[in-house]
Amino acid sequence: MSFSAKHPKGLYLLFATEMWERFSYYGMRAIFILYMTQALLFNKELASEIYGSYTGLVYLTPLIGGYIADRYWGNRKSIVFGAVIMALGQFFMFLSACFHHQTGLAVPLMFLGLFTLIMGNGFFKPNISTMVGDLYEPADHRKDSAFTIFYMGVNVGSFIAPLWCGFVGDTGNPEDFKWGFLSACVGMILGTVLFCAFKNKYIVTPEGAPIGTVPAAKANAQQATTSAQQTGTGTQQVAAAPAKSGSSRKTVLGILSAVVLFLLFSINWNYLHDWSRIFEGADLIGTAIYAISIVVPVIIITDKSLTRIEQARIGVIYIIAFFVIFFWSAYEQAGASLTFFADEQTDRHLGSWEMPASYFQSFNPVMLVCLTPIFTALWGALDKRGLEPSSPVKQAIGLLLLAVGYVVIAFGVKDLDPNVKVSMLWLTSLYMLHTMGEICLSPIGLSMVNKLSPARFSSLMMGVWYMSTAAANKFAGMLSSYYPEEGVDKHLLGYHVADLFDFFMLFAIMSAVAAVILFCLTGILKKMMHGVE
Ligand code: GLN
Description:
Blueprint: H1 9-39, H2 44-57, H3 62-98, H4 103-134, H5 143-169, H6 177-202, H7 215-230, H8 247-266, H9 284-301, H10 308-331, H11 337-345, E1 346-347, E2 349-350, E3 353-354, H12 360-384, H13 391-412, E4 422-423, H14 424-452, H15 458-480, E5 490-492, E6 495-497, H16 500-528
Parallel strand pairs: 1-4
Antiparallel strand pairs: 2-3, 5-6
Helix pairs in contact: 1-2, 1-3, 1-5, 1-6, 2-15, 3-4, 3-6, 3-15, 4-14, 4-15, 5-6, 5-12, 5-14, 8-9, 9-15, 10-13, 10-14, 10-15, 10-16, 12-14, 13-14, 13-16, 14-15
The structure holds glutamine.
The site of glutamine (GLN) has 6 residues, from helix 15.
């Protein structure tokens, strides 16, 4: 993989569009919880719950957007629809903040905004990622580097957004939040206009044919490719589109299974004897995400139109997406427990200036943009010697780097007096290692999903990939509640979290175990990939 390979111009259009969309997403996210607590005067618990549900649901709806794109709309229409809807969502957030004194108006407007953003993201995110891969022929070796460049766009947006939206919106005066949301809205409009203006010119195949328009055309292209791959192998025939026969029966069965799982996960087992309290304390959105994360993959992989090879490749995506849940749930502590740690136990003085704890949020995107070229050069150099690791090995390395990050910080806080603050270097090292892990895991994961998915399911599979982030965000919130507190005894599956060392080691152990198991599976996974690198 190398950056020096020439890429189609369409990649840079998708880079810029995604950069503005992520600016909008992360800009709003940076001030959202503060808006709820400081302007709407919600308590921290309620605000955190709404925040967690939002960040979970935003990654669940790509399943819907991916499905509709593959089956009916194509990627282009879905992206434009999602982008317009998201701009509208940010505008509702702006309106909510304009009327924040009138909670009777501001709160419904905020929920309308959140709902719109969740739906819009579902149409935008899986489809823009799929389009990156579709700019290339299925076996093009430039795909990994294309996704890595695209991922830098994600991070340029994520870096500028909290700084700008925080600067204009988080001033200490609740009247100003609206400017942060308005900036997010303008960013989204810029991305939309850019995409609409240049898509016909640049989002095309090398021959100039438009990409991402009619799903049927994609299915036929895939049929031709897969049939060619299968010539002489004697495996079963490829169907041109997902089987329709029996699909409504399957949908009903799927919905029923999801409901049953949802109820099972929501039951409070302590109150089995008292039906009126049987769902007491249930996290309804979390359980819905977990139930859907189990049922939808089963429905997809049992689709009758899939060949054995396609099923095996989809199986690889599932296995890796499962391990990736452990990555994101440990990584996403950045916005939760690691921010408490930055706030309470880290000496943030640089000379006489004390850096705000929230600034640590920008470390990751900056480091990502700086370190990516180094990794790309490394993969390129290894490739020349025939030593470039396969995608599953890179994912396992990513998990391992995450574990090392937690080991470093765990030893930084070992036997630390709760009143003592540690150097910023500990958190900085952790973020550096986590960012290196992310570079190995995230863009390569997107590329892998694109390469392994049957074209007629490619956006839906991207939705499945993002679904693992939805489950991870929910899981992250649960794990963050084990952050040690004076006088509270916390246990997780027999593991006693007595202090910060134990807390950080919990993530180190979890990601190291996941990394080792994934390393052990890489041989089988490579076979299941049937020649896709
Ligand atoms: N930072 C990435 C983004 O915003 C993370 C996505 C993910 O899969 N968790 O696109």
